TrEMBL record:
A Pfam family recorded for this sequence: Sulfotransfer_1
Domain of life: Bacteria
Domain (Sulfotransferase): residue spans on this chain: 12-131
Name of the protein in its database record: Putative sulfotransferase
Spans traversing the lipid bilayer: none
Length: 288
């Protein structure tokens, strides 16, 4: 194993997205590997916003006394920012990039409900309104054929792309592929390694979140970040979701399934070109 000196510190592993595609789960898996240190705070959002300023502050997120091969972080904001691929390459040309994708329609729906949970959009906003807003980030984040080629151009073989559905269908194989990509010692998948770490809560959960956690997030962001990492908050979240349930997909208006299939037709074709097709969307496409 290559031991990196603190004087040579440069983050060299980036999980860049996409939103609601298992990045929290993967962040935890990577951090459990003895050759990897992932930042305690997820979503550092440094590139595309602050880079190249405050590098020293950025590096404080990594414990340089660890005998590891990789210092990494996970920020889904990097996925669709037009400058991030070039910035990370400039910062560290040897960096490894991991992209986790998901069925584009399922990802959009999960993002839609999660944003309601976070209070980013009103409970009254409909899926149809989102789709009618051309260029909306929810739609753009699912158009993988637009974003991934930028990272392919800058990182080539140092880019690993997979899909959440494929990873969960055979998690041991996926974990082995990740370790081989990173050229690190292969260890077994951690116990509970397929458990979801970022489930979207139902409407009752979202109402509680808006009255309790959201004001802290808006007024005291540092305290909010600390709460996210606390065992009490994680336990409380599990209890509330068990009581109020997970978010349910809204019923589709007439013609919505066909519209969604058409909306992401090119995305499905692109996934197939990467060898990442999945039975579900192939059925949708054949029926459209």
């Amino acid at each position: 194993m290559i031991i990196r000196k603190s004087t040579d510190l440069r983050a060299n592993l980036f999980v860049i997205g996409v939103n609601k595609a298992g990045t929290t789960w993967l962040h935890g898996l990577l951090n459990d590997h003895p050759d990897i240190f992932m930042s305690k705070t997820k979503e550092l959002d440094y590139f595309g916003k602050e880079y190249p300023k405050n590098l020293e502050k950025y590096h404080q997120h990594f414990e340089t006394n660890r005998s590891v091969r990789y210092y990494g972080e996970s920020s889904t904001s990097y996925f669709c920012h037009p400058d991030v691929a070039a910035q990370i390459q400039e910062y560290n040309p040897e960096a490894k990039i991991i992209v986790m994708l998901r069925d584009p329609v399922d990802r959009l729906l999960s993002h839609f409900f999660f944003s309601k949970q976070l209070g980013e959009i009103s409970e009254k906003v409909t899926l149809e309104a989102i789709l009618n807003d051309k260029g909306h980030s929810f739609v753009r984040d699912s158009q993988y054929e637009v974003t991934i080629p930028k990272f392919q151009e800058h990182f080539g073989e140092n880019l690993f792309v997979n899909r959440l559905e494929i990873a969960l269908s055979n998690p041991d194989k996926f974990w082995t592929e990740i370790q081989q990509f990173l050229c690190i010692n292969e260890v077994s998948l951690p116990e509970g390694g397929t458990d979801s770490k970022n489930v979207t809560g139902g409407k009752g959960f979202r109402n509680i979140y808006r009255w309790t956690v959201l004001p802290i997030k808006e007024k005291k962001p540092d305290l909010y970040r600390a709460l996210l990492d606390s065992s009490f908050m994680k336990f409380s979240r599990k209890v509330l979701i068990s009581l109020f349930g997970k978010a349910e997909k809204e019923s589709f208006p007439s013609g919505m399934k066909e519209r969604l299939a058409q909306e992401f037709k090119e995305t499905y074709r692109y996934l197939e070109s990467l060898g990442l097709s999945w039975q579900k969307e192939m059925k949708m496409e054949s029926s459209s």
